């Protein structure tokens, strides 16, 4: 493959947040005669591959003394979330696997609210479903999603898994109906990724994914998810607006 194509591939991986997966794949075939990867890019790939094992991990599967859940924007939802975690740990049939899955779903929601698509989070959720899905109590999961007001958002995320990674509907029990918005979001995001990759320079790729990923945030995040989780969306939007006004004042 030409150096230009390698540059585009690596840039796309950084933008999508999946560079660790690409790095491990390239490192595994480093000795192949047709790799044709420039030395500076190969050094970057080796560095990424060295730290990939610590990044390509599922949520730890042991019971923690204090479960650290990602925060939701709505105060009442956070209180409900804490009650769910506390209640589950003191239940006679505690399912840490189910709590772990809830954690990944919430991380996906937060990522989508920030940028529109969280490809790394989707891969993590897909891996979790394939490797630990049989141990998840989906009856509890459905109840929790309902209490937190994020059931429709979870359905949207499940639709993305089906579109991107070929999951069957019955592999994701919290998906109850097809959502065409999943297709629209993915097309919009991938279009911006393609445009950004086409205009980036090699030195931008070498500096990491921060600036590049900032360029592909799509307009469907934030209030675009209002009909999926009204309370969470409004609180997140107000919080973001307040933070930006504060930054302007500074």
Note down, in words, how this protein is organized.
With 250 residues, the chain is mainly α. It is 66% helix and 0% strand. The chain has 12 helices and no strands. Helix 1 crosses helix 9. The longest helix is centred in the middle third of the chain and has 20 residues. The termini are far apart. About 3% of the residues have low confidence.
Outline:
The chain is mainly α and 250 residues long. The protein has helices at 3-16, 19-28, 39-55, 75-89, 96-115, 119-132, 138-148, 151-165, 180-199, 202-206, 210-214, 230-249.
| Rg from Cα | 20 Å
By DSSP, the count of extended strands is 0
- Based on CA inertia axes, which overall geometry fits? globular
Give the % helix.
55-70%
The first-to-last residue Cα distance is: 48 Å
DSSP helical segment count: 12
Round the mean pLDDT to the nearest integer and report it.
79
What amount of the residues lies in strands?
Answer: under 5%
- Uncertain runs with pLDDT below 50, 5 residues or more? 58-65
How many strands, what sense, and barrel or not for the largest sheet?
A: none
Structural class: mainly alpha
Series of H and E elements? HHHHHHHHHHHH
Key terms:
12 helices, 250 residues, single chain, mainly alpha, 66% helix, globular
Write the layout of secondary structure elements.
Elements: H1 3-16, H2 19-28, H3 39-55, H4 75-89, H5 96-115, H6 119-132, H7 138-148, H8 151-165, H9 180-199, H10 202-206, H11 210-214, H12 230-249
Helix pairs in contact: 1-2, 1-9, 2-3, 5-6, 5-7, 6-8, 8-9
């Amino acid at each position: 493959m030409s150096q230009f194509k390698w540059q585009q591939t690596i840039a796309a991986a950084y933008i999508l947040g999946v560079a660790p997966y690409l790095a491990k794949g390239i490192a595994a075939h480093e000795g192949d005669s047709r790799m044709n990867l420039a030395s500076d890019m190969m050094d970057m790939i080796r560095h990424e591959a060295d730290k990939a094992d610590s990044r390509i991990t599922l949520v730890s599967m042991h019971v923690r003394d204090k479960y650290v859940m990602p925060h939701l924007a709505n105060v009442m939802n956070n209180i409900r979330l804490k009650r769910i975690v506390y209640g589950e740990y003191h239940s006679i049939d505690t399912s840490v696997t189910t709590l772990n899955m809830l954690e990944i779903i919430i991380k996906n929601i937060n990522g989508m609210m920030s940028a529109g698509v969280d490809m790394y989070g989707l891969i993590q959720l897909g891996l979790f479903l394939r490797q630990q899905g049989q141990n998840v109590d989906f009856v509890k999961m459905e109840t929790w999603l309902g209490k937190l007001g994020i059931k429709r958002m979870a359905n949207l995320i499940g639709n993305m898994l089906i579109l991107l990674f070929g999951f069957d509907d019955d592999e994701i029990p919290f998906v109850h109906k097809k959502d065409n918005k999943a297709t629209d979001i993915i097309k919009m995001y991938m279009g911006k990724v393609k445009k950004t990759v086409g205009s980036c320079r090699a030195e931008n790729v070498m500096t990491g994914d921060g600036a590049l990923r900032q360029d592909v945030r799509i307009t469907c995040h934030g209030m675009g998810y209002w009909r999926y989780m009204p309370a969470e969306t409004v609180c997140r939007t107000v919080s973001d607006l307040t933070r930006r006004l504060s930054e302007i004042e500074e």
